[in-house]
Amino acid sequence: MRQIYIEVPTTTKEVMMSIPYRNDELLGKIHVIFTELDESKVRIVTVRAKDSEDDKDWSIQSKQVMSKNMRTVEFEFDFRDDDGIKLHVSTKIMLSYSHRCIMVDW
Fold it and tell me: Are 13 and 34 in contact (CB under 8 A)?
């Protein structure tokens, strides 16, 4: 299992990362979007993921961040390599008022 850990400042609204794979290839892209509505105090995390070169083929998931889930949201995706081998990718995003942490396991 491999992991990526990224700390994101609260001033950053979007983060794009790629998952490295064998022979310096990239398996897929993950795009994390942070939405915070000041008036209603709603925090939403949207994750777009894709495992192909086609820019139209994104898998999208969104979750609202709430105090009851300890301000942590999790997303699951399956990527396929060129040989058709499926790789499970888990993304956990933890938010506080001072920083954000993204952990990706595959």
Answer: yes
